Amino acid sequence: MRWGILATGGIAAAFAADLVDLPDAEVTAVASRRRESAELFGERFGAARAYGDWESLAADPDIDVVYVATPHTAHRAAAGLCLQAGRNVLCEKPFTLNLRETQELVALAREHDRFLMEAMWMYCNPLVRRLKALVDDGAIGEVRTVQADFGLAGPFPPAHRLRDPALGGGALLDLGVYPVSFAQLLLGEPDAVAGSAQLSPEGVDLQTGAVLSWESGAMAALHCSIVGGTGGTASVTGSRGRIDVPSGFFHPERFVLHRDGRDPEEFTADPADGPRTSLRHEAVEVMRALRAGEKESPLVPLEGSLAVMRTLDAVRERIGVRYPGETVTVGVG
Q1: Could you read off the pLDDT of 184-234 as tens digits, one per residue?
Q2: CA-to-CA distance for 64 and 86, rounded, in angstroms?
Q3: Distance separating the N- and C-terminal Cα atoms of the chain
Q4: Residues 6+ apart with CB under 8 A from 325
């Protein structure tokens, strides 16, 4: 499977490094706004072609799928360009800046009959998939609460991309997308959303707390931060037990299942699946789906990504974060 890599930053390099280790994948071409960056990246990962513009990559007929790794403020433009040119697309998370942009990308994918997937690697992680299967099979009964946190210690200066409104800065979109996606993986889209945040002088969220609620009575308490390093823990409590993920819930090494009346059971990652930070699983899923002729992945369905963006928009509406050029956001509840 021939991949194009659009952008040459850290996440693009991490993905390409995992990609070249797969026997059925190759980095065929890379594009950057600076040709020199594309050429250096291409030399590093064995790409046959390096482009100094996005349009040339999108037009390359030898590419089966493009991985979009730009900052999320450019996802709509970059992924949209590729879809309109007839390329299949894997687009980094958060899918876009807001729900409207995600809706536009989904519409373009369907109009041009192309594959599109958000690079929510957590959903493709084998151990996370095992956790979800246990919950779906009723191992802990009916889900009552989900708790999850993701925070970085910082401090990040005002000029850093995580503090820059023009780059969609703030904790919520960059980090909070993981707790929100984790909760919605297990419970679906919430019926009500509440949120509170500490904002920076630039107007982005330094840390945000959100409470999601469902008509079933289930609730999720979620937190993200760029001013405090958290444990990255998660817990799912049900009517007959709970599952605890002690750290790094979005790429866990292990989790513990507690069932009422039974000894705890520990589930650990299989070393054969590679390092816990590996992005290979999402690449494998994209290639599986493409070979099967699917236009979206059942692991990361487009409706699920749309639902997560609706929730992120709703949280931003509650905490008062809006980015340059945005119109009024529309959220749930």
Answers
A1: 999 999 999 999 999 999 999 999 999 999 999 999 999 999 999 999 999
A2: 10
A3: 42
A4: none
Q: Let me know the angle formed at the C-alpha of 158 by 155 and 160, rounded to the nearest 5 degrees.
A: 75
* Alpha-carbon dihedral angle through residues 306, 309, 314, 319, given to the nearest 10 degrees: 180
- In angstroms, the CA 157 to CA 290 distance is 42
Asked if the peptide bond before residue 179 counts as cis, ω within 30 degrees of 0, the response is: no
Q: Which residues contact 221 (CB under 8 A, 6 or more apart)?
A: 145, 146, 147, 209, 210, 211
The closest of 271, 229, 230, 231 to 247, measured between CA atoms, is 231
Q: For the full predicted model, state whether its pTM sits above 0.90.
A: yes
Residues 135-164 pLDDT 10s = 999 999 999 999 999 999 989 999 999 999
Query: Which residue's entry shows tokens 């007929």?
Result: 61
Separation between Cα atoms, residue 221 and residue 144, nearest integer Å:
11
Task: Identify the burial level of 320 via C-beta atoms within 10 angstroms of its C-beta, where 0-12 means exposed, 13-18 middle and 19 or more buried.
Answer: exposed
CA distance 295 to 219: 32
Q: For residues 280 and 15, what is the distance between their CA atoms, to the nearest angstrom? A: 7
Q: Is the dihedral of CA 247, 192, 242, 122 positive or negative?
A: negative
